[in-house]
């Protein structure tokens, strides 16, 4: 019989390229290994869903053959990682729920925490 794996819940706290890339790498690697993963983009981290944004760190990562932040988000969504964008953060950054990529839900922290009650929580 297969072992049930504890879920991983990742909360993104800001728009720092390195932190966001690390959190997305953790999410994608965990999902690829079969671990349930959920992500919540809090406050200004919702700018990650502006898929036309040019991230300063992406040029350095690209030179090293590392995927861009937008590529990492696409991969996470393709892996079926449940993803929420903070409604307050959307307002703060001038974005709307209609601008979110398919598969990203606009929601609040309470809804996210209710969904991940039994998950291991990581804050990046």
Key terms:
124 residues, Hypothetical Protein Ychn, Chain: A
What does this structure look like?
Helices cover 38% and strands 19% of the residues. The termini are far apart. The chain has 5 helices and 5 strands; from the N terminus they run E-H-E-H-H-E-H-E-H-E. Helix 1 (17-32) packs parallel to helix 3. The model has no long low-confidence stretch (mean pLDDT 93). It has a single domain (8-123), classed as DsrEFH-like (Hypothetical Protein Ychn, Chain: A), CATH 3.40.1260.10. The longest helix has 16 residues, at 17-32. It is α/β, with parallel strands linked by helices. Strands 4-3-2-1-5 form a 5-stranded parallel beta sheet.
- CATH C-level class is Alpha Beta
SSE ordering: EHEHHEHEHE
The count of β-strands is 5
Structural class: alpha/beta
- Provide mean pLDDT, rounded: 93
Summed up, the helix count is: 5
User: For the record, what is the CATH homologous superfamily label?
Assistant: DsrEFH-like
Give the number of domains: 1
- Specify the overall morphology: globular
Question: Beta-strand percentage?
Answer: 15-25%
Distance between the termini: 34 Å
Query: Largest sheet, order of strands side by side?
Result: 4-3-2-1-5
Annotated CATH topology: Hypothetical Protein Ychn, Chain: A
Low-confidence stretches: none
Main sheet properties: 5 strands, parallel
The CATH architecture comes to 3-Layer(aba) Sandwich
User: Portion of residues in helices?
Assistant: 25-40%
Any idea what the radius of gyration is?
14 Å
